[in-house]
Amino acid sequence: METGLDTPMRGSAAPAARSLGERIDALHVAARELAQRPQRPRRERLSGIHNPWGHGSALIDPWLLLDLCEDPEILDCVEALIGPDIVLWDTELYLEAAAYQRFVREGREGRYWPAMPLQGAVVLVPAANAAQHPTCMDLAQMAREGLPALDPLSPLYVLRYMPATSHFVRDGRALANWAAMEEQPLINYTTRPLWLMRGEDRAGSDFVTGFSPPVPRWAGNQPKEK
Question: Smallest Cα–Cα separation from 140: which of 158, 117, 114, 157?
Fold first, then answer.
């Protein structure tokens, strides 16, 4: 989120980035550094990386990514596809775009979305070429046309938005959540925090879960059972 400050937060340069290009540039370095590591982090740790309370917060500055997700140019593009009521529910970094290309070819984009009815937009932000503008597609368009040309070896940020006219289903027994549990068991969408980017919540989604993680307690401090 923008703070209007000129000094970095948590060692980042999030408040200094203002234009879309500056916001993307600020994220390129982190993506390339992770992609060049001899031991790359597991993909699950790079899911939901906009979440300051998530596992990926030590790898990518989530405030930088939230700044990007709030960028007016990106939200204008998303609004043109899904309407004025916009919820950010997921982000993911693929260290090689080829992995996301396989994900889409297998028909998995949208399969795990806990949105009822299922609607949404995906914004693809290449992390190799700062001159390459993000691509915004809705789920139907992606299924029909496939992905744009991407450098398969370069990192790719994927931003996922749903209309606030759809309900975010947190019940683990729901079909999409059940499929996610079976096919990618280390990723749990049911506890993801939601950000209302524009408009109003029109479907009664839970915007509280995920913002107050439970305080960890040592086993020895647990109350004794009577």
Answer: 117
